[in-house]
Amino acid sequence: MTRSLPRRALLGAGVLGLAMPGLALAERPARGARTAPRPGPDPRPVVVLDPGHGGRDPGAIGVSGTQEKRIVLAAAQELKGRLEAGGACRVVLTRTRDVFVPLEGRVAFARRQNAVLFLSIHADSAPGARGASVYTLSDRASDALSAALARRENAADAAGGLRLPPVPPDVQRILLSLVRQETRVGSERLADLAVDALRSRVALLPNTHRQAAFAVLKAPDIPSMLVELGFLSDRGDEAALRRPDHRAKLVGALAGAVERFLARPGIA
User: Fold this and answer.
1) What residues make up the domain containing 162?
2) CA distance 70 to 52
C-alpha cells in the first residue's frame, strides 16, 4: 500500500501559535502558590460544514414554498451537534444564521480553519430528480444533471489561494499536482463512505455518487464533498426534508461517514 502524502507538509504550512498575554502585576499569583496549567490547543481535526445559500440568496424554492437556505442550515446545525457529541472532531459552520456568504468566501474560510474535511450541504431543484446524492469535483461532469447543478451553484469560482513554498515553478507544479491528487482521492473515499451509509436509511438518486465542477469543492488541499439532501422540486422530497425525523436519518448517515473517514484518514 502506498503511504499517503501529507498535504500540509507538502505545502510547508506552519502550526499556528497561541497568544499568551502576560499577567498584570496585581494579578500575579503569590510566591509558592500553585496555578492551574493553561489549556493547550485542541488537537482534534476540524470539519467545516457549509450550509448553501443564505440571506438574499434563498436557493431552490420547493413546490410548497420551502426555501433551500433554511432546510440546509437546519440540517447543518443538526449534523454539527451529532458530530460534536461523538467527540472525534471539532465542527465549524461557514454560516450559522441567515446571511449570504460568497462561494470563494466559503472555500477560504475552510482553509483558514485548517479543515481536514469540507461538506457543502444543499437541497436543490431539478426536474424529475428525487433522493439524496453526493458530488465530488471533476473538470468534466459525469452527467447532464450534475453539470446543470454545478452551473446553478457556481456564482463564483475560486480555488482558495493555495500557498506553495518558495521553490522553482516546475517544482511548484509537481507539488500542486500531488496535493490535488491526494485531495481528490480523499474526496472520493468520503463520497463512497457517505453513499454506503445513506443507502440503508433514505431513498437515493440513481448513480448516487456523481461528479461536476462545483466551485465550492475546489479547495486544492481539503477533501470536499457536496451533499444534495434531496430535491425540493419533488413534492415527496420537500415534505420529507421538512420533517426532523427524516433529517435525523440523513444526519446520522453523514456523521457516520465522517467519523469512519477520520478514523482512518490516510487510507485511500
Assistant:
1) 43-263
2) 9
Helix (H, G, I), strand (E, B) or coil at 160: coil
Q: Let me know if residue 6 belongs to a domain.
A: no
Q: Per-residue pLDDT tens for 14-73? A: 333 333 333 333 344 455 556 666 667 889 999 999 999 999 999 999 999 999 999 999
Any domain includes 55: yes
pTM value is 0.75
Neighbours of 201 (CB within 10 A): 17
In a domain, 37, yes or no: no
CB 108 within 8 A of CB 158: yes
Number of compact structural domains in the chain: 1
Q: Is residue 210 one of the residues assigned to a domain?
A: yes
* In 75-220, beta strands by DSSP E: 90-93, 117-122, 132-137, 204-212
Q: How far apart are CA 4 and CA 6, in angstroms?
A: 6
